[in-house]
Design brief:
By secondary structure, the protein is of the alpha/beta class. It has 12 helices and 13 strands. The strands form 3 sheets. A 7-stranded mixed β-sheet has the order 7-6-5-8-9-13-12, with helices on both faces.
């Protein structure tokens, strides 16, 4: 994952001010600390910067601002040294709040927007001293003065996020039209070989099957590189994909496989059962509230002791992008631990999981090998 992708991943963690000391900190403080830690680990020089701002200067409803609180507050952001220059980087507001705030976009070279309107910016020494002196007492004091306001702010922000969430039908429409018109095959799959990480998972999947096993591929795309590799290892492939363009490409790329146009979520499989199911980078496009039932469907389509190989999202995400492979695309998934629980509740035993990030890949997905029990 590159520098800009790391920034986006942290930015798009839903902003939330912690109301208890042991609660995860997803406000500016927690996000900036996580970003700095990752940057430090990857050899970048960075430093904290603190500024003062007024809550009343932000686009917050008057009824919220009427709740007793201290209007003057402090905000944390980061400066990163890029090509000898200190660049301002602020990952505070997540993409789900784009209808309220100006969301920071970063090109990895120039300043991002700040999440607040500074009334005063502390110098580096002041900022460092404050960060080093941060204590539980400071947290408790701020919470005492602002807890009801913070709670109401968190609730309002979450309600605004939900207004941005697409319906299941809207998500499927975006995904279908996106893959039908974008340049996914050219940018992500054409001439792409398998990484050692991918080969390891696919080989373990194959070893758990027998020669000639029948495998169903949910969201088979253009057939390469995964179906081709399985086919070359004496696995019989049946692929279902929502894009006619991908079906046409896949039939040329993997001539021994069978491909059908359709939505694998509600495709008519009759009474057919398979030795294995794979779904790589596909379930992440299925409306997340439908995924628990989808894993149950996978369980029902497998023979006894059938094997499944899925890729799932790592972080909580429900979003669209207008610039994915020159087109619009939608993603929808819960944090990985919730999805793993769905898989287990559907009747699977998890054999192995691993995040592909850092294994010759800048993608951030969890690969899951599981067995029907």
């Amino acid at each position: 994952m590159g520098l800009v992708e790391i920034f986006k991943a942290i930015r798009d963690v839903p902003f939330k001010i912690p109301l208890e000391r042991n609660e995860e900190d997803n406000c500016c403080n927690g996000k900036v600390r996580r970003l700095k830690y990752i940057l430090d680990e990857n050899g970048y020089e960075s430093r904290y910067v603190i500024c003062e701002f007024k809550w009343s200067d932000l686009s917050i409803p008057k009824e919220l601002l009427s709740i007793p609180h201290v209007d003057l507050s402090t905000h944390l952001y980061l400066e990163i040294k890029i090509d000898g220059n200190w660049i301002k980087v602020d990952p505070t507001w997540d993409i789900g709040l784009k209808s309220i705030f100006s969301i920071s976009e970063w090109d990895g070279k120039t300043d991002t927007k700040l999440a607040v309107i500074p009334t005063e910016i502390y110098d580096f020494d002041q900022s460092s001293a404050i960060m080093e002196d941060e204590t539980d007492d400071n947290f408790e004091k701020e919470l005492k003065d602002n807890k009801n306001f913070f709670r109401a702010l968190n609730e309002w922000l979450e309600s605004e996020r939900k207004k941005q969430i697409l319906t299941a039908g809207e998500i499927k429409k975006i995904v279908k039209e996106g893959y039908e018109t974008n340049s996914y095959f050219e940018k992500y799959r054409k001439n792409k070989g398998l990484t050692n990480f991918e080969i390891l998972f696919l080989d373990e999947f194959i070893e758990l099957l027998s020669v000639g096993s029948q495998v169903l591929d949910w969201g088979s795309g253009p057939g390469v590189p995964y179906d081709l590799y399985l086919s070359q290892n004496n696995i019989s492939i049946t692929g279902i994909d929502i894009s006619q363009k991908h079906i046409n490409i896949a039939k040329k790329n993997v001539p021994d496989a069978k491909y059908y146009l359709g939505d694998f979520c509600d495709f008519d499989y009759g009474d057919k059962q398979y030795d294995g199911i794979i779904s790589l980078y596909s379930i992440i496009h299925v409306p997340r509230d439908d995924q628990a039932n989808l894993f149950k469907k996978a369980h029902g389509l497998l023979k006894t002791r059938g094997i499944a190989l899925f890729t799932i999202g790592v972080n909580d995400k429900s979003k669209t992008r207008d610039d994915f492979c020159d087109g619009k695309m939608a993603w929808s998934h819960y944090k990985y631990n919730i999805t793993l629980e769905m898989i287990e509740n559907a009747g699977f035993k998890i054999i192995k999981t691993d995040n592909e990030f850092g294994h010759e890949s800048d993608e951030n997905h969890l690969w899951v090998l599981a067995e029907k029990i």
